[in-house]
Amino acid sequence: MKFQSKETNAKLDIIKKHIASFPDFPEKGILFWDIFSVLQKPKIFKILKEVLIEAVKNIHPPPDCVVSLDSRGFLFGPLISLEFDFPFVPIRKKGKLPGEVVTSTYSKEYGEDALELQVGSIKQGQRVLLVDDLLATGGTLSCATELIDKIGGEVVACLVIIELPKLNGRKLINGNILSLIEF
């Protein structure tokens, strides 16, 4: 994502320099980009928060709630939620949410998994901002948008910090994808 502000683009360059990578994790042949390295540096984490807030201010129509994905999305969704006074809704891995849930499965770059969303956590027609740390093959985000659709929400944007465009994950997502940094 390129911002009109040179200052914001400079902030993105700073953040990008602080994202660590780990080859052959969690499996051989996977290059893992780790956002935790940014969180370990409070000054850089603060810069990331500022950029996330600026990105959300430019989403039209504006969202009514923030939904984040288990587990790294939980580090950023609540920051945005509190800043804009939006409700926060988690999407979790299967078996982690109480009450009635909807479930969807997806394939990822190194296996298969399932996600769940509590029924009633999003109102019919509510505009949703979906937040996660990474867009790789698109399986997780696609699964999450499916869950939101199933319970009547409308995804107005997917906001990810890191995108791996070579894996072409965008092709699975219908809608507005805002990625801050590409590797």
What is shown here, in short?
The chain has 183 residues and is of the alpha/beta class. The chain has helices at 6-17, 36-39, 42-57, 77-84, 139-150; strands at residues 20-23, 31-34, 65-69, 88-93, 101-108, 111-118, 127-135, 154-163, 177-182.
Detail the topology: elements first, then pairings:
Elements: H1 6-17, E1 20-23, E2 31-34, H2 36-39, H3 42-57, E3 65-69, H4 77-84, E4 88-93, E5 101-108, E6 111-118, E7 127-135, H5 139-150, E8 154-163, E9 177-182
Parallel strand pairs: 3-4, 3-7, 7-8, 8-9
Antiparallel strand pairs: 1-2, 4-6, 5-6
Helix pairs in contact: 1-3
Class by SSE composition: alpha/beta
Largest sheet: 7 strands, mixed
**What proportion of the residues form beta strands (DSSP E)?**
25-35%
Q: Count the E strands.
A: 9
Q: How are the strands ordered across the major sheet? A: 5-6-4-3-7-8-9
Number of helices: 5
Give the averaged pLDDT, no decimals.
95
| Rg over C-alpha atoms, rounded to the nearest angstrom | 16 Å
Helix content: 25-40%
Order of helices and strands: HEEHHEHEEEEHEE
> Globular, elongated, flat, extended or rod-shaped: what is the shape?
globular
Question: What are its keywords?
Answer:
single chain; 7-stranded mixed β-sheet; 183 residues; 5 helices; two-stranded antiparallel ribbon; alpha/beta
Structure description:
- The protein has 183 residues and is α/β, with parallel strands linked by helices.
- The protein is built from 5 helices and 9 strands; from the N terminus they run H-E-E-H-H-E-H-E-E-E-E-H-E-E.
- It has helices at 6-17, 36-39, 42-57, 77-84, 139-150, and strands spanning 20-23, 31-34, 65-69, 88-93, 101-108, 111-118, 127-135, 154-163, 177-182.
- Helix 1 crosses helix 3 (42-57).
- The protein is globular and about 40 Å long.
- The relative contact order is 0.16.
- The model has no long low-confidence stretch (mean pLDDT 95).
